[in-house]
Amino acid sequence: MRLEIGKINITDIRFAEKSKIEGGVLYVNAEDLKPVVLEDEKIRDVCFDIAKPGESVRITPVKDVIEPRVKVEGKGGEFPGWVSKVDTVGSGKTLALKGMALVTAGKIVGFQDGVIDMTGPGADYTPFSKTLNLVMVCETVEGLKQHDYEAAVRKAGFRVAAKLGELARGIEPDETVVYETCGIKEGIEKYPDLPRVGYVAMLQTQGLLHDTYVYGVDAKQIIPTIISPTEAMDGAIVSGNCVSACDKNPTYVHQNNPVVEDLFAQHGKTINFVCEIITNENVYLADKERSSNMTAKLCRMLDLDGIILTQEGFGNPDTDLIMNCKKIEAEGVKTVIVTDEYAGRDGKSQSLADADPAADAVVTGGNANEVIILPKLDKVIGTLDYINKIAGASDKTLREDGTLEVELQVITASTNEMGFGTLSAR
Amino acid sequence: MSYFILTNNPLVKEEFGKSHEVEFIDGRLIDVLTEARDKISCGDILLSHPLYGSVKPNETPYRSLLLQRGKKSGGSDFPPADPESVRLIGNAVSTFEKFIVKKEITNPLLLEDFQVVDLSLLRSAVESADR
Fold first, then answer.
1. Within a 13 Å sphere around the CA of A207, how many CA atoms are in the beta-carbon half?
2. Beta strands of chain B (E only): which ranges?
3. What is the pLDDT of residues A153-195, one digit of tens each?
4. What pLDDT is stored for residue B100 in this prediction?
5. What is the distance between the alpha carbons of residues A294 and A327, in angstroms, rounded to a whole number?
6. How far is the C-alpha of A26 from the C-alpha of A164, rounded, in Å?
7. Alpha carbons within 13 A on the beta-carbon side of A169
8. Is A242 noted as a catalytic residue in this protein?
9. What are the angstrom distances between the C-alpha of A419 and each of A39, A293, A414?
10. Do the Cβ atoms of B54 and A204 come within 8 Å?
11. In 3D, which of A261, A258, A256, A215 has the Cα closest to residue A238?
């Protein structure tokens, strides 16, 4: 499959009378976007705000982060199964608004985490302090149940991102990158001497606030399957995961998966990047067994020499991680795992909730228990009402001087397990 | 499949109490894990993972698990302990002990949110078990 990503560099976001992209500036008329959100009768109101790198702004609680894109050539459209029909995406041409993100924020449950600081020490830990952020805070109708609230805000985010992406249609991109994978036979003929490498992405799939969707399907219902990595670039995989901010994979990270980027960078040079395999992280142990069996089988059937395996979350998924690693290694396929650590505040505890000698090649995204003091910032988008209740916080989190004492867990994508953050170790 | 639910979540008891066998523990999350550990050491088998994927064990007060009663074999009075269940519950208890437990949650709205999430995760396991 061949996908061109045309990058349109956004250098500023401003509210204006007319929504458009001009000279690298995204002009937004929030009144244009409101009806897109409010078409879901479960949402009563929405407000938009802008947060720029370096500003004294804290966004919390963050639900999802999305990169606006538009499909201009090829089958399907963005976010298949949600905004577009379920055509297979991942080929043709897509335009992406680079340097910016749509952030959905606001309370869904009372313990929801997710902090993006645009300045100060917290900003160093989140990649989304470097993007120009259009933030969308939804208010839902009274009495809406948690499941309905989550779904309404999730889907509204995709609709708004698609609407913003449409503004790019017809604009000449600043840069175009081509991503292309071969068919099985074609790859073997084209790169007979290069190792065949795959990417196995584990998706969080356990229930409310812990879900991921593939072409609109709840991924806990799938058995592992093969996709082209370019499909995720068009929004085929989206996040419904609202907690564990540090190591969840926001939709933006699926669209801009750094493992996929790096594998493509080596494709045809040092490796033959064959495909992406997606699998789930279910609650029921027999589901874990079945999925890891299937994943290992696919790796074998594709004659892979090696894979990179990424997880999402901590605890329960550590068991999927280890099951996958053990079984794939047992098929003779070399496996590198990418994870993060919960090694205690002093970093001395066991990092994962499961382990095996087969997991002997590990890349870490950092220790989520590490403590950080975040300064008081001038403006909060969202609310600080729940900051003491979230993962990585305690009743002492919001201190008298307005500073926050938290673990890295609260910061969006700080220990991301696809390597989207800045932390690691050697 | 014959199984039972071990829980300290009143919403799970309310939801599944009439249709499923529910053992309710009036206690903390760690009490559910240690009770499960005791049952597993006497031969019961874990069917669902004892940790969540995102909500940390020091954050939520609730935990619900699916277990299968052990079957006696040979001449022993007790069924043999299932090694994988022993390993998973042991890791879960160790993981719980690693996290610093926060102040007890008393806000009823927050408690309800945690109950709903715990119910949702358990339901996904029950749906798999009941297929």
1. 23
2. 4-7, 22-24, 45-46, 64-68
3. 999 999 999 999 999 999 999 999 999 999 999 999 999 999 9
4. 72
5. 10
6. 9
7. 13
8. yes
9. 36, 25, 9
10. yes
11. A215
Q: Locate the chain B residue with the closest alpha carbon to A219.
A: B124
Residues of B with Cβ-Cβ distance to A409 under 8 angstroms: 56
- Residue-wise pLDDT tens digits, A221-270: 999 999 999 999 999 999 999 888 999 999 999 999 999 999 999 999 99
Measured in angstroms, the CA of B32 and the nearest CA of chain A are apart by 16
ipTM comes to: 0.93
Joined together, the tokens standing for residue B38 give 């005791």
Where does the pLDDT of residue A413 fall: very low under 50, low under 70, confident under 90, or very high at 90 and above?
Answer: very high
Q: Radius of gyration over alpha carbons of chain B, in Å?
A: 15
Domain boundaries, chain A: 2-410
Q: Quick one: which of A96, A248, A299 has its CA closest to A179?
A: A96
Distance from CA of A270 to the nearest CA of B (A): 35
Contact pairs from chain A to chain B, CB under 8 Å: 137
Distances (CA, A) of B129 to A114, A142, A207, B63: 33, 35, 15, 18
Of A210, A344, A389, the CB nearest to B52: A210
CA-based nearest residue in chain B for residue A314: B53
Per the residue annotation, which of A47, A138, A182, A242 is the catalytic one? Answer: A242
> Quick one: DSSP state of residue B116?
H
Average pLDDT, chain A: 95
Strands (E), A342-403: 362-367, 371-374, 379-382
